[in-house]
Amino acid sequence: MMMLSRRAVLAFAALATPARSFAAPSPAASPWVVGHRSRVRLLDGGGDGAQLMAALEIELHNGFKTYWRTPGDSGVPPTFDWTSSTNVAAVEPLWPVPRRFEDAGGVSYGYHDRLVLPVRVSLRDAARPARLAGAVDYGVCKDICIPARAEVALDLAGKGPPPAPVAEALARVPVSQPIGADGPLAILAVAPQSGAKLAVSVRAPAGDPPTLFPEAPDNWYLAPGAMSDAGTFAVEVAQRPRDATGPVELRFTLAAGERAVETIVRLDAADLAR
After folding, report:
1. So what's the pLDDT on residue 134?
2. Residue-wise DSSP of 209-258
3. N or C terminus: fewer CB in 10 A for the chain?
4. Gap between the Cα atoms of 52 and 125, Å rounded
5. Could you tell me the CA-to-CA distances from 48 to 66, 133, 149, 233, 264 in Å, in that order?
6. Is the dihedral angle over the CA atoms 267, 270, 273, 274 positive or is it negative?
7. How far apart are CA 78 and CA 71, in angstroms?
8. Residues 6 or more apart from 52 whose CB is under 8 A from it?
């Protein structure tokens, strides 16, 4: 019987042992990109024709969070650069409703543990293959916030319904509806008050305390207070441009239980002054 040297045996064993840290990714997902206390990848979200779905998945270490498109009193929202993509005309993020966090830094809006962010991908040519590729900058925050960056890419199959993680995230995207809409959850009125405040009246199901997430254009900041027994949130216009004039578009996301709605209203900047 031929005898192998110890070095040859070790080399053979190394080749025969699976390298778990370099396992091939699922065909429906890009490889994980590891960042500060987090990792990021893309998921294929199905679709058909000239419009496909994908999702950006961010997993965070226990106790860490990342931010919504409007971060609140502190933090930085994720930003995306998809210019490295192939056969992609536009990419639209569809934000699941966030959580409200309160700490020494104030009130912030975001996600803990895991974020699956669906993105709607419009193609230039539905007959050609598409590749979604780009860079994602996001904050990873606990006591302090550390910037992180990931470069991700995935060939999109574009067939069938979204897989479970993407479908679950899509179910948490607020439904757009007009002010005063029917239904169990709605923004009923937005009325300017003296002292640069807004009274936002809402309807919410009994037993599901609602949370309001107000948004305004760049260089504006709206700070929500608690809801009164009358079903009205007091919202402070905490920051506004000095020279603001004309109509201002404000967006209000209202969440309660498993439901969330989004309503856009336009008010005159003069009504939002102190």
Report:
1. 96
2. --EEEEE-STT-EEEEEEEPTTSEEEEEEEE--TT--SEEEEEEEEEETT
3. N
4. 12
5. 31, 19, 30, 41, 30
6. negative
7. 9
8. 45, 46, 120, 121, 123, 130, 156, 158
**Number of neighbours of residue 207 by Cβ within 10 angstroms:** 7
Predicted pLDDT at 16 = 33
What is the DSSP annotation of 107-152? EEEEEESEEEEEEEEEES-TTS-EEEEEEEEEEEESSSEEEEEEEE
Share of the chain above pLDDT 90, in %: 77
pLDDT at residue 58 tops 60: yes
φ and ψ at 253, to 5 degrees? -105, 125
Confidence of residue 166 (pLDDT cuts 50, 70, 90): very high
46: tokens are: 């199905």
Which residue has 């994908």 as its token pair? 54
CA–CA separation, 244 and 220 (whole Å): 10
- Which domains, from first to last, does the chain contain? 28-171 (2.60.40), 175-272 (2.60.40)
Q: Range with the lowest mean pLDDT among 72-81, 102-111, 183-192, 199-208?
A: 102-111
Structure tokens at 208: 């599901």
How is residue 270 written in tokens? 């003069």
